[in-house]
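Lecture notes, continued. The same structure-token format from the folding unit now serves as the input rather than the output. Read the line below as a description of shape only.
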């Protein structure tokens, strides 16, 4: 399995086929090797956000080397972050630099910046006004 570097609001990713086409390159299984949550300056002064960040740190430590995401050929995504598998959808943006994903029951689509380090490593970054979350 390939290693994943992911930067985003709370997501992780995995892949196994090497091609110049990002949609094909991301397909396969990925393991989260590392993760980092960085609060915005405004959030560093918000007691609720500090509490959430503290809880997230514990979750991040538990997911390292264990959380997985599979990107299927037909746009199906399965992620396992310590519990039951969650099945959703994914597609690459036209420029191949962003991943758009969604989960059933959620009207919101997540947009994540994708950077392929090499054939076996990528990072995904999701930015929000509260924080950036990085998964590797």
């Amino acid at each position: 399995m390939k290693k994943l570097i992911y930067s985003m609001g709370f997501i992780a990713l995995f892949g196994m086929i090497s091609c110049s086409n990002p949609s094909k390159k991301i397909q396969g299984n990925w393991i989260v090797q590392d993760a980092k949550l960085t609060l915005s300056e405004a959030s560093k002064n918000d007691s609720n956000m500090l509490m959430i960040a503290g809880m997230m740190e514990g979750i991040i430590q538990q997911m390292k080397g264990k959380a997985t995401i599979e990107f299927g050929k037909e746009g199906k995504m399965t992620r396992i972050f310590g519990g039951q598998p969650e099945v959703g959808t994914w597609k690459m943006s036209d420029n191949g630099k962003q991943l758009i994903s969604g989960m059933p029951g959620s009207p919101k689509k997540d947009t994540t910046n994708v950077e392929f380090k090499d054939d076996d490593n990528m990072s995904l970054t999701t930015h929000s006004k509260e924080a950036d979350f990085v998964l590797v």
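Point for the exam: The helical segments are 22-25, 47-63.
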